[in-house]
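# step 3/5: fold
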Amino acid sequence: MTITVTTSDQFQHILRILNTNVDGREKVVIALTAIRGVGRRFATVVCKEAGVDVTKRAGELTADEINKLVTIIGSPAQFKIPYWFLNRQKDVKEGKHMHNTANTLDSCLREDLERLKKMRLHRGLRHYWGLRTRGQHTKTTGRHGRTVGVAKKNTHEVEVRVFLHGSERDLAAYLKELHG
């Protein structure tokens, strides 16, 4: 294991990669997980494919290494990364295997939910109602936002008046008249 010391003028504390602020003090694999759509395993594969040392700090990366990482994350299929590693396999619209990151990931998820709601599928309706979508029981858990309480019964007798043809009469007297 070799220890490399970089001078403070070469070290970047915050990097801007794919519209995301990445902490330069963390190791490259961990730092790349700050990008939405990139996890630890995918970041490790990308670093190995780019030839970047995984024990290196993100702030020590050169501009060429950063560009290489960005191109591999942007189009992993060109670099022989298997399709089962990607987060968008067999897209509904295009039928291709893709890997979405950052803003494209958010828009794809939003489009998927809108498609499910528009088609009135069970999963889409559960999303619309704000309920669990994967078959969980919801009788006792997941009661966020709803108050469940017991209302007290009113034990006082209430005098009920009936308005018939503009005159007010007692209900008991009215029922006596009806049933004689």
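# step 4/5: annotate
The chain is about 35% helix and 10% strand.
# step 5/5: archive (pending)
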